[in-house]
Structure formats: C-alpha cells, structure tokens
Specification:
With 261 residues, the protein is mainly beta. Helix content is 15%, strand content 46%.
Length: 261
Amino acid sequence: MKRAALILFWVHLLALSYGTWAQAPQQQTPQAPEQRTPEQQAPHEEELPWYLHWGVEEGPGSDNPRGTTNLGMPLNAPLSPVSQHVSWGLGVNAGAGYNFNRRHALVGEFMWNWLYPTNQTLRPIQIALHTNKVSGHGNLFAFTGGYKLELRGKAVGTYFIGGGGWYYRTASLSRPVPDGTTIGCVPAWVYWGYDCSSGIVVSDLTEVHSNASALGVNGGMGLTFRVGVAPYRMYVESRYHFAPTKNITTQFLTVSWGIRY
C-alpha cells in the first residue's frame, strides 16, 4: 500500500507538470476588465498582503475554479505522548472541495501516514524475547473536512485551513511474546496492543496489533506558487492534528508539499 500510494503521488505530479508545459505556448487575448465576470476578476492589489503582489502575465486557464483538489505528501512529526512510540511518518494526502468564491472554500480530505516505531517502544519487547530481531510499524488514517480562507495573488498565495474529522491509528509487531511470560507493564506494551493486570502484562496474544480511533481537530496554514497554466499551483503546508485516542493521545505536526488545483 505504501509503495502504491507513493507511485500514485509522483505519477500525478508528472502528469500535471506535462499538461501545464504542453499548454504554455498557447496565447489568448486578455479580456478587458469590464468584459470579465465578477468571478474572473482578481482582488485589487491593495486587498492582498505585500508579499502576494508579485505577478505573472495573464495566460490561458481560469484562476477562479469552482472546484478545488489537492494531492500531496505529508511528513509527520509526532508530539508527546505518541512521540514516545513513533518517530516520524511519511504518506499521502488527497482532497477535494468547493470554492464559494476566490477566498472561501469547504474542503474534504483523506490522509494516510506510515508510522515508524522508536527504539524506546521496541526495546521492552526485544528484551522480553531475548532478541533484536523484532520489528513493528503503524498506520495513521484521517478523514477530515474543514474551511479554507485563501489570499491568492497571481503568482504567490497563502491560506489558512482548519476543521476536524475521524482519526484511526494502528500498530503491529512482527512477533508475539510467549504466553505465560511474566513482564512488568510499561506504556510500550499498551501501545502495541497488550493489556495489563495488576502491573503485569497479559501475554496471551498470538498476533500483536492495536488500533485506536477518535474524532479530532486540525488547523494550519500554507503557501501556494503558480506553476504553468492557471489554476495549477504547488503548495507547502504546515498543520497541527489532535485526536484524543484511547490510552495514548494522537498529536502531531505535518509538513506537506504537492500540487493544488
């Protein structure tokens, strides 16, 4: 799944880049301002921050589409307490929504991250099994929706986005601990899916995995950069996510980059 998602991401970027390059030589006579509809007219320069005043020549394509989509690659940096168990993650996010006008939009998004465990959370299992040949991994899935406020210049733009949705986190180990092994309980065992009783790990699992889900919230901001024909833009975004999942709260920052329409 991880390899397929990454391949899909790069194929999408290459396809969009080729499409914009192929259309670049075409020229159209710009419409006079009085001939444009209100939706086609960009905000006046004084309405935008100074760093969005950098312009590009008008070209084919509309920079005010009714629909909006995005495809990107998020790098996940976990925050405490889940940072004790996962170090970082890499994955794919995709979204689609509706632009009410040039500034206001509602967006629905899906995000998947592959989570890499820390040595701290693997070490108790390795000690119990008397071997270092134990591995584990996790996944984070998020289905969210939110509101986006965008300040879009001709070449550069910025936006703020926030909302909420459903977060689902999984974790699995490559090997279980033999049933009957007496082990003191620490948070790492709970993360991998073991239960504890009177401070002792209940080691009766034949397959070690855990999952936790909860409704959560997110918020952040990003920058966009016009590439080729409007409305294609590259974007870089930073966002905070929080979900009060059982036992261990899911909390992290993502830095994403990709293509936005």
